[in-house]
Design brief:
By secondary structure, the chain is mostly helical. It has seven helices and three strands.
């Protein structure tokens, strides 16, 4: 099912962060262009929020953050942008006056059929990309997130610095 392909991207020496930024550029950049052509001002970063609200309207920022696996800050900033666009609105929640529930507006709700079609096409394209790779990208990303949730990258770097210092001491 997965085939070995010749790599055209010759910068394997680039750091992991550089490669990931390039990958996001290629994925989100193209998706951004598609949304720009729609002329409605939609951005890929809106998708986790819109998907969450499409599934269950009236969520708090915390619930959106938890459901969509994005930070509270990112969810809050994105919701603010969607409010500015008129696609969602907020109102005081039932239990706590400090908590605000987020709802789709009629405009936001009217966007859902087009967005859901695009999301299905995007997922199908991602699945096809997975099938073309030597290992499915989606699986590698999920595994990477799991491993980094178990042990942070900063802890891994610190451990490697200790090992490098020890090997340096052994050379002297």
């Amino acid at each position: 099912m997965y085939s070995v392909v010749m790599m055209k991207y010759e910068k394997a020496s680039d750091g992991l962060g550089t490669q990931l930024r390039r990958l996001i550029e290629l994925l989100d950049g193209d998706l951004e262009k598609i949304y720009e052509n729609d002329g409605v001002g939609y951005r890929p970063r809106f998708t986790p929020i819109m998907k969450s609200l499409a599934a269950r309207d009236g969520l708090t920022i915390k619930e959106i953050s938890d459901l969509s696996s994005i930070s509270h800050s990112a969810a809050s900033q994105t919701v603010s942008k969607l409010i500015d666009l008129g696609w969602v609105f907020s109102k005081v929640g039932n239990g706590d006056a400090r908590e605000r529930a987020i709802y789709l507006t009629n405009v936001g709700r009217s966007m859902l059929p087009m967005l859901q079609r695009r999301w299905r096409a995007t997922q199908a394209a991602a699945n096809k990309l997975d099938a073309e790779l030597s290992s499915p990208l989606s699986k590698l990303l999920a595994e990477s997130i799991d491993r980094l949730s178990e042990k942070s990258f900063s802890k891994r770097i610190f451990e490697q610095e200790i090992l490098l210092d020890k090997s340096k001491d052994n050379l002297n």
